[in-house]
Specification:
Chain lengths: 293, 555, 313
């Protein structure tokens, strides 16, 4: 991890980090493809009301119909428009994915910096993280959701919470390696105040690996939501989410395959986009990997 | 630690005992007499030659068998389990007429107040002990505490006692014409005969020994809760001579072993059925019927002809459904055809239902149903909600996410309400959560509810003696707490209505009032065929699954 | 070293105690009621109240917690509220399928994943690397249950080559056992192979560009010796860590896979238990899995010191 931080320090110390970032990104196809796909999905989701129908409109008399001009992807077992639901489903999956990634990254960053820098709390914090991490994600999420009943808020917490320890561990390890640096030690000895040291030296080194990790968390979160819905404890069933759609269409794989494939493909493409973005970012932040390509 | 070891030891001991009983008991030998005695030295050889491969039937029951004591629960898996391992005094035949099962002879005194029952010969529990009158008396006493019909019996009875090992009597204050029907009930919990020791337990304490005198033995060693349960043929069971007819008649077991595989995923269950890994699926989802029908090895068969009535319970204690106009609005709003499209897409297995007494009972009628009959009139519903003074109060619909039909029906109700401007909100949770929340009588802001969805067997839904659905005694009634003193006064006269005609007339009157105050709103009736491989034949066509009589054709 | 071991033991116990409190509160504060599920859909309020009283669910929470902890420390994991059986017995019945599935998956994923990762790193940007990129993108992006249904349709229903569902105990014969586990193992391994391979690739890449590797290459060490002797040895630490950490992830996949293939394992036991609010089972399983996790990671930490002598405690 040490070499990553070193090169990144120099990168971050560049005079115009934003321009530099864009210039490098242009060379990085992965970031472009992943980021582009993700952006496209976000736009599609945001603009849904302008072109997709009503995803919640139930009509039992047109259930399980094949694709037609009115229903591009056909209808599901309650006669709802599969295309509209798949498009609106992007909102849920992306919201769950992005917010839980932000939440996990934010919480993990905070806790990780504290644990890594204030050694007094390190042990207790890391043991709590161990405790959290030691319970299988899906089981922890099911248990959490059964506490309040299904809902998007609780789902996001349930998905983010088990992801927090991995971020915390990552941040802590970066902090630990950075604080051994001579210039950081020098700054501390020189009487710099702690927040300043953290701000100047630790954060810049933490952000890049954190972004990579956030992409992983985001992809995981989207998959976890789908898995929880498959088990019947995800987003409330009236809300169109890809996980819900797949779960409630399991029986129709043979008769109305699009009810599964449409959300399945959207899900796979979204996770793929996030993963590509994550990979791209890692290559971008790790010039040694770049050099080898 | 000690507790753990002793429990473990007990379990081992009971297993051991079970094994010993596999061999023929001395009583059996005496009963079989001389002729059988001479044959006794042969059977082991005979069996070795005659028995081809042991006939094992794999079944998938919907729902999990989690309680082994029929007195504690009304769930179907427990009823099926109990029908296999326990026996009953009387059983209903296919026409719904009670026939003696464990009882050999019975008689009624001239004043019609004393019933005398004598057990037939050859009855023994799986542990080898004979079934005695004392076992029956203890089982009846435990059962009357939980069964609505039993409660009626105990109110009228002055004495239930044994006369000798095989004879017991029930003495009444005044005649009760339906007594035998009550003893033969097929409404859970059925009157199963347990050992006296088991039956002496409080009705709230689970009997887990699963030792009965029925045609199957529960294999404790192979019991894997949540995974599979195994039932072995009870070689010592002596069936009646009559052919099987409904629940009645001889319980002849034609297979060696039945295994219940718990397959939670319906897609997986169907795949296993197609692959021949299992023989029977109790409740395949309606949308898979075409797949089953197109498979040459499989067939659908309706065992439960009575069907299930789905309904909405409305909360009578809270706004907006404390107002009768709002409840009547729901009758106008609900279009049963729409619900049936989703819950039972094949019209062969769906029918509308407007009678409080279901479609299949002699009491079914059309009194006071004309004004809402077809439902599906949102304008009228909207108008009635307005007349009820509806002012945007939140309507909370409990949605059982782990029961497909309840889940979908809740979505449909919410959608129908939202379309006429009602502030309807779904409260999703699994059935366990709903079971708890529906007991809350408070307003929705305090965790209460407005609507929940459930179902009831068609044959029983309106039965004034045993159905808690059909009560209307306010806060003492079933969830929703409907109240109508007029209706209750009529219901109280049911048990004494002598003839079928009298009861039919009474039923019309009761139903007339019921639809005025709208005790509940019906969504439609579905019939659930079972799916099985064609090699599995002679299944009994009864609402509660029975495992005797069926045959498995090999090959 | 002994001191370190002791300290890790103490902290492991602390972790599990925290899990204990957490799990207890989580489950008990949930809104569902096991008595309701037990009593069935048409039960009356009185029937439900009777059952609740009998199960001791009316006792105050702290008393329930003390009772539970006391029993737990005495090795008594309690009795299932539903089946009336000892939780330990139930777990014992379910352990074999879950262990079989997990260990087979682990074995398959680590062998395939690590080799895949090493080959990809060795010729970064080459065919294998690109293949890994595509495979891992796929493995990461398609949910386990979709892969499962797909494989079932393709290999079981279509051809009848493999059993569709179920589990055969190892006692019924090794081949039957293995045949039943092929599809579930492959299904569960897809994302896991991708996962292990990517970690292995990343770790190898780092090591391969270290100065000492260049030195070794300059000194004329052959490629294979380099790859497997120096590089793998150094990349072993992060790979091991990740395998240890992903234990919980594996269990999550096990739950889904057991559902798809109807394998009567621990995962399904606990999902059913959560639906039924069967407190003793949920608590025991969560405590035991977290205990197992803590032990595995302790072992991994110790393995560090063996693999990479530079790490000292």
């Amino acid at each position: 991890m040490a070499h990553i931080s070193d090169t990144l320090t120099s990168a971050a110390a560049g005079r115009q980090p934003v321009f530099r970032f864009v210039r490098v990104a242009r060379q990085r196809a992965l970031v472009l493809i992943g980021g582009g796909l993700l952006l496209l999905l976000i736009l599609l989701a945001l603009a849904a009301p302008f072109y997709a129908g009503d995803p919640r409109n139930i009509d039992p008399f047109v259930r399980l119909k094949p694709p037609s001009p009115e229903h591009w992807f056909g209808t599901d077992h309650l006669g709802r428009d599969v295309f509209a639901r798949a498009i609106y489903g992007a909102r849920i999956s992306l919201t769950v994915g992005l917010i839980s990634a932000l939440l996990a990254a934010g919480t993990g960053l905070l806790i990780g910096v504290v644990a890594g820098y204030l050694r007094k709390f390190d042990n207790i914090i890391m043991r709590i993280m161990d405790a959290l991490m030691s319970i299988p994600t899906i089981l922890l999420a099911i248990a959490l959701i059964s506490l309040t009943g299904p809902g998007i808020g609780i789902l996001i917490v349930a998905v983010a919470l088990p992801q927090t320890p991995s971020v915390t561990r990552l941040v802590r390890s970066v902090v630990l390696s950075v604080r051994e640096r001579s210039y950081v030690e020098a700054a501390v000895c020189g009487g710099a105040r702690l927040p300043k040291v953290l701000w100047r030296h630790v954060l810049p080194n933490t952000i890049p690996p954190l972004m990579v990790q956030s992409a992983i968390v985001c992809a995981d979160a989207i998959m976890t939501e789908a898995g929880l819905s498959f088990l019947g404890v995800g987003v409330p069933p009236e809300i169109p989410s890809w996980g819900n759609m797949i779960a409630s269409s399991r029986l129709y794989l043979a008769t109305a395959p699009l009810t599964i494939f449409a959300p399945g493909i959207f899900l796979a493409v979204t996770v793929l986009a996030v993963n590509l973005l994550g990979d791209g970012l890692r290559d971008l932040f790790d010039p040694r990997a770049k050099r080898r390509r | 630690m000690v507790a753990w070891f002793s429990a473990k030891a007990k379990k081992l001991a009971s297993n051991k005992k079970g094994e010993l009983n596999m061999s023929i008991s001395r009583r059996e030998i005496m009963k079989m007499g001389l002729a059988a005695g001479t044959a006794l030295s042969i059977p082991s050889i005979l069996r070795a030659q005659a028995a081809p491969a042991a006939k094992t039937v794999h079944m998938v029951i919907s729902g999990d068998l989690s309680v082994f004591d029929p007195i504690l629960t009304t769930t179907n898996p427990t009823a099926y389990h109990s029908l296999a391992i326990y026996d009953t005094l009387f059983s209903l035949d296919s026409k719904g007429i009670p026939q003696p099962q464990m009882v050999g002879n019975w008689g009624l005194s001239d004043d019609k107040k004393t019933y005398t029952f004598e057990l037939r010969d050859g009855l023994s529990f799986h542990d080898g002990s004979p079934v005695t009158a004392a076992d029956c008396v203890a089982s009846i006493r435990r059962w009357v505490q939980v069964h609505p019909g039993g409660q009626l019996l105990i109110e009228r009875a002055t004495d239930i006692s044994k006369k000798d090992d095989k004879t017991f009597t029930i003495t009444l204050k005044e005649p009760l014409g339906v007594l035998i029907d009550i003893l033969a009930t097929t409404t859970s919990p059925l009157l199963f005969i347990m050992r006296e020791n088991d039956a002496n337990r409080p009705a709230t304490e689970q009997v887990t020994s699963s030792i009965g005198s029925g045609p199957f033995k529960f294999n404790q060693a192979l019991a894997k809760p949540g995974a599979s349960f195994t039932y072995d043929k009870n070689e010592n069971y002596v069936p009646r001579n009559e052919p099987a007819d409904g629940y009645a008649g001889g319980k002849v077991v034609n297979v060696d072993r039945v295994i219940w595989d718990n397959i939670a995923d319906q897609q997986t269950a169907l795949a296993a059925l197609q692959g021949g890994e299992i023989d029977f699926v109790e409740a395949p989802p309606p949308d898979l019927f075409p797949v089953i029908e197109s498979d040459p090895n499989l067939e659908l068969q309706v065992l439960n002809k009575s069907g299930d009535v789905y309904f909405l319970r409305l909360n009578f204690l809270q706004k907006p459904f404390d107002n009768v106009k709002a409840r009547q609005a729901m009758l106008h709003l609900i279009d049963q055809e729409a619900f049936l499209q989703v819950m039972a897409p094949d019209p062969q297995y769906a029918r509308t239902v407007t009678s409080l007494f279901g479609n299949t009972t002699p009491y079914s009628n059309d009194e006071n149903t004309g004004w809402f009959k077809n439902g599906g009139d949102p304008e009228k519903a909207k108008q009635l909600f307005n007349e009820a003074g509806y002012a945007g109060e939140k309507v909370v619909i409990l949605q059982a996410t782990n029961i497909q039909k309840f889940n979908d029906a809740a979505l449909l109700v919410a959608s129908a309400l939202q379309k006429i401007g009602i502030n309807a909100e779904l409260a999703p949770s699994d059935w366990g959560g709903i079971g708890k929340r529906r007991t809350n009588k408070g307003p929705v802001e305090e965790g209460g509810w407005s609507i929940f969805i459930s179902n009831w067997p068609d044959q029983e839904i309106g039965d004034p003696l045993i159905s808690s659905f059909a009560l209307a005694n306010g806060e003492k009634a079933w969830y929703g707490w409907p109240q109508s003193d007029e209706y209750e006064a009529l219901r109280a006269t049911w048990a004494d209505a002598g003839s079928l005609e009298e009861r039919q007339a009474l039923a019309r009157k009761m139903q007339g009032i019921w639809w005025d105050f709208v005790g509940a709103v019906l969504l439609g009736e579905t019939i659930s065929p079972t799916a099985h491989r064609k090699a599995l034949t002679d299944l009994l066509e009864v609402p509660l699954m029975c495992m005797w009589n069926m045959q498995k054709v090999s090959g | 070293m002994a001191f370190y071991l002791l300290r890790r033991m103490v902290s492991a116990i602390a972790v599990m105690a925290m899990v204990g409190v957490f799990v207890f509160l989580l489950i008990r504060l949930a809104p569902g009621d096991p008595a309701v599920v037990l009593a069935g859909p048409s039960a009356t309020e009185q029937m439900v109240a009777n059952i609740r009283e009998q199960l001791g669910l009316n006792d105050p929470l702290p008393i329930q917690f003390v009772h539970w902890m006391r029993d737990l420390l005495g090795g008594d994991f309690g009795t299932s509220i539903f089946s009336g059986r000892l939780v330990l017995d139930l777990l014992a019945q379910r352990l074999e399928p879950t262990l079989s599935l997990s260990l087979l998956t682990l074995a398959l994923s680590v062998t395939v994943g690590v080799s895949f990762g090493i080959l990809a790193a060795w010729r970064a940007g080459g065919l294998v690397d690109r293949l890994l990129l595509v495979f891992s993108a796929f493995g990461y992006s398609v949910p386990v249950f979709v892969i499962g249904y797909f494989l079932v349709y393709l290999l079981a229903i279509g051809t009848g080559w493999l059993p569709v569902q179920g589990y055969a105990p190892i006692g019924d014969g090794l081949s039957r056992w293995f045949v039943h586990l092929i599809l579930p193992t492959v299904t569960l391994s897809v994302p896991y192979i991708a996962f292990v391979a990517r970690i292995a690739r990343a770790s190898m890449l780092e090591v391969l560009t270290e100065d000492y590797m260049r030195t070794a290459a300059a000194k004329g060490a052959s490629s294979y010796a380099m790859l497997f002797h120096h590089a793998l040895k150094n990349a072993g630490v992060p790979i091991l860590t990740v395998i240890g950490l992903s234990f919980a992830y594996l269990i999550g996949g096990v739950v889904l896979t057991e559902t798809v293939y109807n394998i009567p394992g621990v995962g399904r036991l606990v999902v059913d238990a959560i639906n039924n609010r069967d407190y003793p089972i949920i608590q025991s399983v969560l405590i035991l899995t977290s205990g197992l996790y803590v032990l595995i990671n302790l072992a991994v930490d110790l393995a560090y010191t063996l693999i990479d002598p530079r790490i000292r405690y």
